[in-house]
Design goal:
Structural class: mainly alpha
Radius of gyration: 23 Å
CATH class of the largest domain: Mainly Alpha
Number of helices: 23
Order of helices and strands: HHHHHHHHHHEEEHHHHHHHHHHHHH
CATH architecture of the largest domain: Orthogonal Bundle
Number of domains: 2
Shape: globular
Helix content: 55-70%
CATH topology of the largest domain: Neurolysin, domain 3
Strand order of the largest sheet: 1-3-2
Distance between the termini: 65 Å
């Protein structure tokens, strides 16, 4: 018998074991989704215990020596296959995950999960009361646990293992110079725009009834391609997307009746994540390959749809007449040019999720630097609000009105950990611009389709080149394969300069 035929039963055994573990992970995701949507706050401690139990059980099953034995026995089988075949990829990615997971005790994973659940609820309360001191001790514990998690791995910088969890291959030594260059390019652009006559965006801040917003938003994401037979949309304080299977992908949004942009653009953002998950090849279902490559690639898809597509003039050539028809009292006297300018207004805001494309990455880099300082022991949690405000004053010239608009505005440190939580957002913007540039160069018809409200071509190209592969490729492999180049800030900077020179009638060549 051949090597392949001898190993096939071992491969099937590995796959079956992994599917059982994935089912446990999905159960955890369902509990997390429920906690942030419908669960009463009285269930917090019990929910933390439930998630911790499942997390410990899943971790124990995955780090079982039998998994290691199967991976070793399948080395020859893996080498006999094409590198990116499903079988070779599953073995390769599982081995990578196993070598990482086996370093972390199951008891620690349970302890971390329990704490994350409790810390999240403390954050919800502290944020609503604008009182950082209520969540400070929980965040101090999160910092301790984040440092402890990093200690299980060899590293050059304490943040490296935490970054690698979500953006494999990225390190502080790569990100610091990349972000330094990006910041140096963005600050002058932001200053030039700030000196231009301000755009009137008051049309966005009228009364927009909630149900009408949700109905219009649903029609937009359905037109883009979200399959409601394989997903749903709910409301939550902080929008996110969860995938329980390729056939069950759940988005959330939030609605402000005095701010039209929030619900719509958070919905388009989340549909970018959701299309990725719904577009994964069915043959990967139930395996560790059935999810996005990493945080930055996933974020590139949401930012591509939200900003490059959703805030483009072509997009609104199709949708604006419909929007005016729904909100006639609010928009009947607002031209499409005025509306397009309004949704792309550059303003130095204290809120990351409200930030425009020019200043958004500055928000991310502030958080990244604060994370590093906390992990390095150079910044204590009690001093975090002050450091946050100083960073905002330095880069954006503003100070948040309170800690809910400042250090408590994002859920990430309070529901997950400190380290590796934010760099993916900035990387996603860079990758989105680079991928879109390559796609339009390959087939310019993409832009004409957007103007007609036809997103099929763009969606198919993204599915073919990115979505269907799940985790087969690393971020670097995928970027090179799709664009023919390594990651660069230049496509993003070119995109920003081209777009905003038109919107603000400016010449950015003077600061190039």
């Amino acid at each position: 018998m051949s090597t392949i035929s001898l190993c096939e039963p071992k491969y099937l055994e590995l796959k079956n074991r992994l599917t059982q573990i994935q089912d446990l992970e999905v159960a955890i995701s369902v509990l997390n989704w429920d906690q942030t949507t419908y669960m009463p706050t009285g269930g917090t401690f019990a929910r933390g215990r439930q998630i911790a139990t499942l997390r410990k059980f899943a971790h124990e099953k995955f780090t079982d020596p039998n998994i290691y034995q199967l991976l070793e026995e399948l080395r020859a089988y893996e080498k006999s296959l094409p590198y990116y075949s499903t079988e070779a990829s599953l073995i390769r990615v599982t081995r990578r995950d196993y070598e990482r997971a086996v370093r972390v005790p199951s008891e620690f994973m349970a302890k971390l999960s329990q704490h994350q659940t409790v810390c999240y609820e403390a954050w919800v309360k502290a944020k609503s009361l604008k009182n950082f001191s209520l969540v400070q001790p929980y965040l101090e514990k999160t910092l301790e646990l984040s440092q402890e998690l990093a200690s299980f791995f060899p590293y050059k910088h304490i943040a490296d293992p935490l970054i690698d969890f979500v953006d494999e291959g990225m390190t502080v030594s790569i990100l610091r110079p990349l972000f330094k260059e990006l910041r140096q390019k963005l600050l002058p652009i932001a200053e030039v725009i700030a000196s231009a006559p301000p755009i009137d965006d008051s049309c966005l801040y009228q009364h927009y009834p909630k149900e009408k917003q949700l109905k219009f938003g649903r029609s937009v994401i359905e037109r883009i391609g979200f399959d409601f037979q394989r997903g749903r949309q709910d409301e939550t304080p902080h929008p996110f997307t969860s995938s329980f299977s390729i056939g069950d992908v759940r988005m959330t949004t939030r609605v402000y009746e005095n701010n039209f942009s929030e619900a719509l653009f958070s919905s388009i953002h989340e549909v970018g994540h959701a299309l990725y998950e719904q577009g994964i090849s069915p043959e990967l279902e139930g395996t560790p390959l059935a999810k996005g490559t990493c945080s930055s690639i996933h974020e590139s898809q949401s930012r591509l749809w939200e900003n490059i597509v959703g805030r483009s003039r072509g997009f609104w050539e199709y949708f604006y007449p419909q929007l005016q028809g729904i909100f006639l009292p609010q928009l009947s006297r607002v031209s499409i040019s005025e509306f397009h300018q309004a949704i792309n207004k550059v303003v130095k805001s204290p809120i990351r999720t409200d930030a425009d494309e020019v200043t958004y990455n500055l928000h991310v880099m502030i958080r990244f630097n604060l994370e590093l300082a906390m992990l390095e022991g150079k910044l204590s949690v009690k001093d975090l609000p002050e450091a946050w405000n100083e960073s905002y004053k330095k880069d954006l010239g503003i100070v948040p009105a309170n800690d809910s608009e400042g250090v408590m505005q994002d859920v990430h440190w309070y529901g997950e950990m400190i380290g590796g939580m934010f760099q993916g957002y900035a990387l996603g913007n860079l990758i989105a611009a680079q991928i879109y540039e390559a796609i339009v160069k390959f087939d310019p018809e993409v832009t004409f389709g957007i103007e007609r409200g036809n997103f099929t071509l763009l969606r198919q190209l993204l599915k073919q080149n990115i979505y269907q592969h799940g985790r087969k490729y690393t971020a670097n492999e995928l970027i090179n394969q799709v664009t023919g180049k390594s990651l660069s800030i230049e496509p993003f900077i070119s995109y920003i300069q081209d777009k905003y020179s038109n919107i603000y009638n400016l010449n950015f060549a003077i600061i190039a």
